[in-house]
Amino acid sequence: MGDANLLDIWDGLPVYSYAVCGAEYAASQDVSGLKPFLPDGIASLVAICVKYGPRNPANSIVPAEEWSGLRTDR
Hints:
Blueprint: E1 2-10, E2 13-20, E3 23-28, E4 47-53, E5 56-61, E6 63-64, E7 67-68
């Protein structure tokens, strides 16, 4: 798990970037099925947490049904 930056919301997909061991990654995630789990005002978030596979850091998620890296504290 690590910190990420929300870059944009593109057609409802959060686009984010993060770094692991000096390598930069950018990804997006289809969160349409997770709408009940998402905080209001997702477009105003900047700092988020990302979970990624330690063996494949390019494999990442921001929210899931039982976890959300979308920070609601400001």
